[in-house]
């Protein structure tokens, strides 16, 4: 999908990037032994390269089998190759993809041969950068490529796929259109004050500005869900020593990730492990026990626990069902709430028929030893992770930190515009604030001229992307 604004910016940025006439090549699959490897080349020389290597320019989008011979004539490998004619390719340029056997030595030989034939090595993210500059992707779609590659869960994959197909771009296109409509009414009064125009209607523009502020707030509310999708629900396991925190971690991840001992205080530092539950992924953080009378070493472990608790999305408070409910440090207690805490009573295999007492948090009986209650725990964890999704309509929209910063500044500009309209300030000042908001909206999907920002964004991509 091409975003309507991207091609305009591509024209503006081409001169700065200066890749006209440049053909790049790189390995597009991870380095290492595998069944196949893919080498990609993109640029104006690709059609000629294909003729030079394979004897003809192949028909677009048709995979063909051939021997790949180096410039000196020696056989490197038998390969499948596909030619994509621009602009109907990933980058918008002529592109060649060569699939070879997955021996890293073979793949490297192919890349070296393409470089010897005049290509230059692709920089990190340069294929996707060219796709953006050629109008094949808007900037939010380009970022979604990286989200798609790194997705750890079904929900993260679904969100990345929808953004890659333009969900955020469509949302921003609608906001930009509405903002331009309101701005046009104001600009007309500024530019043509003597013309026979309808009288200035500040009230109508103010209503639209407030509506835009609400829409921006709705988008900004998805930021936390976006972070959860990209990094996992940060789930901190807390409790007193020997409550079974590490045993539960091991049971959940299905292997002995943490050392377990009958001696209290085995865990002195925190451990992290990813856990997939249903369509979500959790970042489980096992922490040192919260001891009422800690030793010097235990106190240092508890300090680490406090640090992890401060950044938690969700708490699993592990309680020994055979003992009285312990008191938590006030600083931890202040972080717990009904919406972010599960009280997990462990060792119920030692107390048949145990029923959790009433607490301000959902409470579950489990046994890390026997597995009792773990299926129900998984169901509750899925529901807790589902609760992080903000209402963004039918499509999954989950903005990232860059989008969030641009929307914050847009919201501030809209707030100043609303104040100016309500207080009858000069209309020129209101227009300036609305143009500032328009620039912030444009940053999200690529209506920008900030070359340094593009360098930072695409440098996080892998070489072959």
Quick overview:
The chain has 465 residues and is an alpha/beta fold. Helices cover 45% and strands 16% of the residues.
Q: In which order are the strands of the major sheet placed? A: 3-4-5-2-1-6
| Whole-number mean pLDDT | 84
Q: What is the radius of gyration?
A: 29 Å
- The general outline is flat
What fraction of the residues are assigned to beta strands by DSSP?
A: 15-25%
Total domains: 3
Largest sheet: 6 strands, mixed
Describe this structure in words.
- Helix content is 45%, strand content 16%.
- The protein is α/β, with parallel strands linked by helices and 465 residues long.
- It folds into 3 domains: 6-138, Probable tRNA modification gtpase trme, domain 1 (Gyrase A, domain 2), CATH 3.30.1360; 150-222 and 395-445, Four Helix Bundle (Hemerythrin (Met), subunit A) (Up-down Bundle), CATH 1.20.120; 228-386, P-loop containing nucleotide triphosphate hydrolases (Rossmann fold, 3-Layer(aba) Sandwich).
- The chain has a 6-stranded mixed sheet with strand order 3-4-5-2-1-6. A 6-stranded mixed sheet has the order 8-9-7-10-11-12, sandwiched between helices.
- Helix 7 (167-191) packs antiparallel against helix 8 (202-220), helix 7 (167-191) runs antiparallel to helix 15 and helix 14 packs antiparallel against helix 15.
